[in-house]
Amino acid sequence: MDCQRSIAEAIAPLCGQTVEEILGWFECPKNSEMGDVAFPCFRLSKSLHLAPATIAEQLKCKLTLPCGVARVEAVSGYLNFFVDTSAMSMGVLNTIACMGDAYGGSSVGEGRTVVVEFSSINIAKPFHIGHLPTTAIGNSLSRIYKMLGYNVVRINHLGDWGTQFGKMLCAYEKWGDRPISEYNVRELVALYVKFHDEADKDESLNDEARAWFHRLECGDERAVTLWKQMTTATLKDASRVYDRLGVEFDSYNGEAFYEDKMPAIINELKEKGISKLDQGATIVDLSEWKMPPCIILKSDGSTIYATRDIAAACYRKNTYHFDKCLYVVAYQQDLHFRQFFKVLELMGKEWVKDCVHVNFGMVSMEEGTLSTRHGNVVYLDDVLNAAVNKTYDIIMEKSPDLEDKKAASEAVGVGAIVWNVLYNSRIKDTSFSFAKVLNFDGETGPYAQYTHARCCSVLRKAGGFDRATVDCAKLDDPYSCALIKALDAFPEQVAQAAEKYEPYLIARAVISICSAFNKFYYEQRIMADDDATRNARLALTDATRQVVKNGLMLLGLQAPERM
User: Fold this and answer.
1) CA nearest 517: which of 563, 558, 461, 459?
2) What is the CATH number of domain 380-555?
3) Which DSSP helix (H) or strand (E) runs through 72?
4) Tens digits of per-residue pLDDT, 10-27?
């Protein structure tokens, strides 16, 4: 990347473009025989009134090659630059060695704050496979922004309010047989399912549920106590899953937290003439923007989640002074976010431009959609356990002498599930099946983790190397060069992942590095007889270990040293 900037700085003054524009035009030749960096001269045809081939020849004659570039060729309207492989290798290896765990990051976010809302589980509901995408994507984005120097605030916006709690309270009062503190979430879900089964036969239960939620809204001691106990039980259950996933939060402020903050929002909307009454409900008319009205208050005077989201956004801006606020929520809520973002804009909150809905595809069961109401759920804990158990069986078969097989199984099994979510663009829908998720072949998390373990194994057997005397001229073979290029590209992929909110770019970069290393491993004898060659190849192996570890960390995976 440093070499590209040097080339851009050399080209820019010769063609009247900025360095940043030139950097944006560079291409990476698919065939290494065509160079390491290609500059398409047709980009300049309009401004220079010349054919691309002519421009290429003229620039070649005028260019002073920057340090680190061995030569340049003009071919079919392109300038193809060939990097001095020894200089490039030395630069990449030194940078990785100096930055260590920070390689791939930067200080671009220094002094800036990013709020990331993700996971957002529901109280007294299961932590199921449908929560995995938001949890994995949000966790990864939080880690990416932190590595880029941002102050990151991770928020679990709990679904802890609404009419469903009236149903839960009603169900517990009718069928609960012991204190809520003795219930786990699965037992609470069973009560919820029973309520719906019974309500289908007796509609009066819905009236009782509404009455219970009204008691909760009014601060009834019995209702509030039961609600708090359900919240405690849910978070206790969820914390176990979060620990396994390596996920942490800075705030668990859910919908209930904003109950006392909504009156000010409602009054502001009225005072500014933004809201109006419509059949008893308070709404913001969004027909001018081809959207349905955003309901602020229902006809019975109760609020809905749009009102709470508006209050939450204002609270977060005033509290965290964010430069960016990300909402990692499924694409089914696209309309909701467009509506409440537009309401914030109408309120004059110019900072709404910094609010981003990071949407993603839905997870469905192969045999149907997930539904807590009907008990059709797959608990995430069960999925993780199945992956870990299968991993343990594989380790027992292939590495029976491995120490601490349980720890390795946990790292690899959980990593396989998370990787499955993050390896493709987040917008794709996923049809979940154990057979697919637990497939350990191909471009998977276990493959990346095994590559890291292989690097560690090589370094252990070598007993170390002398970093101060590394001769990068010994890394001029095509396999070493391909690996070094993959390592060099990693920081740019991290930056792109943050810019596009796409962790899969990092997963793909990690696979590129692992693939290049394994070709290098099989084609080049790392423990060569020649001391200088062995030393250089060990340095490259160590650099690979470091960058794969960093990439796995950004995705939320562990990097086992033994597998």
Assistant:
1) 459
2) 1.10.730.10
3) strand 69-75
4) 999 998 899 999 998 999
